Structures are given as C-alpha cells and as structure tokens.
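Our preliminary data section would be incomplete without showing what the modeling component actually yields. Below, a chain of 89 amino acids is followed by its predicted structure, encoded as tokens that our downstream tools consume directly.
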Amino acid sequence: MSSQRRVSLSPEQWRYLTTVGYLSDMLRECVNQAEATPDGRAVLDVDPELAEDFRSALTERLAATGFDEAYEPNEEGEQLEALIDAFHA
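Predicted structure:
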C-alpha cells in the first residue's frame, strides 16, 4: 500500500514546472494533471516513489545550473531548492 501525499505548489512553481524541458514524460504528465485551486496554486497527489523521482530530477538540475560562480544559489537554484523541499516526504 503506497501512501499518497498532496504537494501544493505556488503559481510560480507550477508555471516553472510546466515550462521546463528536463522533466521526464511521466513527471510532465503529473504536473499537467495537477488540480488548480481558486488562489492559483496547484495540488499534486504523489506517492513516495514519484516524489523521489521529482526530487531527483530537480536535484540534478540544481547541480547543473542552480549556482553562481561563488556557489550561491541563483534565481533558478532558489526555485529548485523550494521545489525539492515541496516534494520532500
């Protein structure tokens, strides 16, 4: 039995995830099926394995492009860190 958890994304986070090209087809499909809330947020129901898939993809992107020359998070890096936290079980 897998336990689903609800992940609530801000409008900016949702917009980011719908426009990036590095997510797998499965993750993109999950994002596209998110339930919109009246305040513009998106809610995804994910099991622990799917949450881990999101975290892995986001972490790989963070390592590749999320830091400046001083190894401080850049704007995308900050967005990615927040998303990784959102998918943390």
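The first strand starts at residue 5 and ends at 9. The chain has one domain: 5-86. Preliminary results of this kind motivate Aim 1 of the renewal.
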